[in-house]
Amino acid sequence: MSLTLEQVRRVAHLARLDISETEAETTLGHLNGIFTLIEAMQAVDTKGIEPMAHAQDVAQRLRDDRVTEENRRAAYQAVAPETEAGLYLVPKVIE
Amino acid sequence: MIGWTLKQLGAALAGKDISSVELTQLHLDRIARLNPEINAFVTVDAEKSLAQAQAADARLAAGDAGPLTGIPIAQKDIFCAQGWRTTCGSRMLGNFVSPYDATVIAKFDAAGAVNLGKTNMDEFAMGSSNETSYFGPVKNPWDTQRVPGGSSGGSAAAVAALMAPAATGTDTGGSIRQPAALCNLSGLKPTYGVVSRWGMIAFASSLDQAGPMARTAEDCALMLNAMAGFDDKDSTSLERPTEDYCRDLAANAGEKPLSGLKIGLPKEFFGDGCDAGVMARVQDAIAEYRKLGAETVEVSLPNMQHGVAAYYVIAPAEASSNLSRYDGVRYGYRAPEYADLDDMYCKTRAQGFGAEVKRRILIGTYVLSHGYYDAYYLQAQRIRRLIAQDFVDAFKRCDVIMGPTSPCTAFGLGEKAADPVQMYLSDIYTIAVNLAGLPGMSIPCGFADGLPVGLQLIGDYFAEARLLNVAHRYQQATDWHLRTPAE
Q1: A84 CA: distance to closest CA in chain B (Å)
Q2: pLDDT (tens digit, 9 = 90+) per residue, B90-144?
Q3: Residue A64's Cα: distance from chain center in Å?
């Protein structure tokens, strides 16, 4: 399977990455090389094999419903670019 | 005392032969002299390090010291450290000063170790050569025209150049073991879940694991004692009793200390694809193990050949998800000019991430997208299960698996940078261990054309103490691990 330039542009948009025409062309070559490597695994018979999403069979733990962290607002806000009245100022995200 | 092991330094500090402040200053001076060329550290803060050293000296004077108290240790720049710039090798976090400590950092702090600085790394730990860092490539102290390996290349180069006695690393597909091999160090990737990932910047969450990098297996054991343990802040941390990873190292085991040990040699590790010089040194090491009393059996890992393919679906898939948080809003770099919200996301991520990170985000986004999820992501997870089962079957016949760590010695800067597939194949012997979640180690086993070669040791789940002992016995019989690069 080979990707097309159009697919690279579409995936870049889905990933929210600006990509120039030159970058798209270079990326297309690299991705096709990588997908040739990846394609090899399609031939493996995995019928009936349960997917392994994690290295250990762990279950999410529950914790007591109580406050464990102290209030460190000042320390956390010290590294923020902009704050006002104890709130973070961010660009407009709801249009 | 430059070049001494942690064990030797611990004894010197306990015996008041040197203070922690003096020892830290010795290493800071060496960093000031060598780092402009090697580029192993991205952040050094002498004032902070020396303040920690003073506190350690107070503990030593009060008789409240442990084996690592007062010892300077370099920290990979993937670990958040309070008050320290924490960049993960990326422009995206170029100015991020962490307001909290990762659990690993907190544990070293509690042990009284001194944070010597933050080491350079491939951006977001994506790379096998340490050339993808926003802060420039790290150079291999054995030959500065060559790479140190990645992604913990800064940590490896720092220890190899004797700028630090030891360092932390992280290993998602081989990022501790491969640079350890290329720089003549001992490096251990523990069983997944043994060391907390809390405060360690995420790349591929089901694979990432932190571990020690040092000159000897004994030092790795000392470090792992400080690093390991259950952490309720990390939902993947395993609830297990605390272990002493040094417990088997002190015993006097006689002339044949490894009698009864069965070493599995996977035929897939010993076929084509490995440089002749590397293979010869690995075979020499296995012959040495036979002299130490071990016996060898052939085993098979038939699905290992698909490990790289499965890894380059699973790891980018997880990375594309983990890195979605870098959007210019919540934290990190933000593009200075943009037209609207969508434009801000796209420009921020395009400017903040380097080429390799973008490439993996694109792979991950593609394999998780509608219509491709089953064919790529689920298939890769099924292959992951087959690979893990291969190891389970192999460990029915042996106690430890051995083979090369890397198919080649340190390659030239820029040599593989233009061909991602060639770069990805650098990790062909290490990746399967991460997919299965097993512990793996690399130890020095000789030189090919003047460059270090690593022997890989793979253990069953939670067999870190055994791995460290098997490595230690070899290091008692050989001196490859004590060789240092010429200056």
Answers
A1: 15
A2: 999 999 999 999 999 999 999 999 999 999 999 999 999 999 999 999 999 999 9
A3: 30
B contacts of A7 (beta carbons < 8 Å): 366
B369 with A30: Cβ contact below 8 A: no
User: What amino acid is encoded at B21 in this protein?
Assistant: V
Q: Would you say residue A68 has pLDDT above 90?
A: no
Say whether B362 and A8 touch across the interface (CB within 8 A): yes
Among B96, B369, B375, whose Cβ lies nearest the Cβ of A79?
B96
How does the average pLDDT of chain B come out, rounded? 96
- C-alpha B315/C-alpha B401 separation (Å) is 24
- Residue pair B154/B130 in contact (Cβ under 8 Å)? The answer is yes
Quick one: angle between helices B355-368 and B341-352, nearest 10? Answer: 130
B76 is known as an active-site residue: yes
Q: Which residues of A touch B312 (CB under 8 A)?
A: 34, 37-38
Site from A39, A45, A46 to mutate, B interface, most B CB atoms within 10 angstroms: A46
Nearest to A51 among B207, B303, B381 (CB): B381
* Reported ipTM: 0.94
CA A58 to chain centre: 22
Measuring CA to CA, which residue among B221, B213, B217, B215 is closest to residue B243? Answer: B221
Q: Give the closest residue to B210 by CA, choosing from B77, B61, B318.
A: B77
Q: Determine how β-strand B400-404 pairs with β-strand B262-266.
A: parallel
Contact A52 B306 (CB under 8 A): no
- Residue A51, chain B, CB below 8 Å: the answer is yes
Q: Which of B187, B190, B192, B228 is nearest to B207 (CA)?
A: B192
Both tokens assigned to B4 = 């001494």
* Interacting residues of A54 by C-beta distance below 8 A, sequence separation 6+: B206, B236, B437
Name the one residue in this structure whose structure tokens are 């170029």: B94
**CA-to-CA distance for B80 and B160, rounded, in angstroms?**
24
- What's this model's pTM, rounded to 2 decimal places? 0.97
